[in-house]
Amino acid sequence: xxxxxxxxxxxxxxxxxxxxxxxxxxxxxxxxxxxxxxxxxxxxxxxxxxxxxxxxxxxxxxxxxxxxxxxxxxxxxxxxxxxxxxxxxxxxxxxxxxxxxxxxxxxxxxxxxxxxxxxxxxxxxxxxxxxxxxxxxxxxxxxxxxxxxxxxxxxxxxxxxxxxxxxxxxxxxxxxxxxxxxxxxxxxxxxxxxxxxxxxxxxxxxxxxxxxxxxxxxxxxxxxxxxxxxxxxxxxxxxxxxxxxxxxxxxxxxxxxxxxxxxxxxxxxxxxxxxxxxxxxxxxxxxxxxxxxxxxxxxxxxxxxxxxxxxxxxxxxxx
Length: 319
Known about the structure:
Number of strands: 12
Helix content: 25-40%
Oligomer: single chain
Structural class: alpha/beta
Distance between the termini: 52 Å
Low-confidence stretches: 1-25
Strand content: 15-25%
Largest sheet: 5 strands, mixed
């Protein structure tokens, strides 16, 4: 049998090769070489035998097995591994209190979205969750229902309204709603200044479970692409653009906290969202309003504006 060095890219005969469920042909290695590699996997896995935390042991053993399987499947070169270490090092250097490059990496590889899927199982008609993103902050200003969360951020005004209920249809009073979004230039407040607060706020539902506020009509924007994640996207021919969206985080006693967005119908980016956050149920019609159209609360707006309804259904806690 032919021995294939780790830096070669020879392919095995498809009639005799192993293949995964998608038909990927694994590169041929000798029986002896496979045994050497498997002995190392077994040795590393055994190093966790004394771990007293069962969950930690499960995570580490699975991580090692999958990592080694990847290295062996693609016959990773030392140069490629060195490039990966350099990539992660640069991601660490650019990360600070505002810029989180590792979240961007997780998002653009779909890992964030898959973790959301795993931890937010479908339940009845509960609103679907999507990615958290790197720009949430804890100290958002409080607003009353009907007030403006833009705080002067540039963009077309948007009237947002809806209700929060549980999956039995009961309206939830006092649900906390955190909202945040980018302005029309594609930047979040903290990207201008770590202490700036605009186009973000929190409010609480009324006794009948209703909420309403003024925000901005969402527009597409690129994720920060001046770092290693941006260079990775460029190298593989992917756009850094996110679909237009408005963030929500909704919580209520006895309910599963929901982190989600809503996306305008007809958005030019849409399903090409670089972090894979779009779900069909979260696409909403942001209805354009012509100049001079009366607003729901009598606010005078000189230009155009939009409005959208988003009724939120929270799943029970623990499901």
